[in-house]
Amino acid sequence: xxxxxxxxxxxxxxxxxxxxxxxxxxxxxxxxxxxxxxxxxxxxxxxxxxxxxxxxxxxxxxxxxxxxxxxxxxxxxxxxxxxxxxxxxxxxxxxxxxxxxxxxxxxxxxxxxxxxxxxxxx
Length: 122
Description:
Structural class: mainly alpha
Helix content: over 70%
Number of domains: 2
Shape: elongated
Radius of gyration: 20 Å
Number of strands: 0
């Protein structure tokens, strides 16, 4: 999932105005101070977008954890698969699916509010 994180972050950093970094250096800002006060806050939308693009598919993944961790690895995607297809316990599987949906929707709503507040400030 590394490309899903790198691409939004790269797209955000490319749009960063170089004159801000030069102004910080001209005013005596150290590289770490420049990064923490200028680069990081301006790249937050890319970080949030990349995090969401990584988080959403990673939650539902069940093949890779099963292959890497074996049958004893407990991931929510694997639990959902087992309840639907192995145990045929549809009520429990539906409950797990709803819990997974809630876990995925909350960060998406938070990201949307952050983006709305950023666009209102501009």
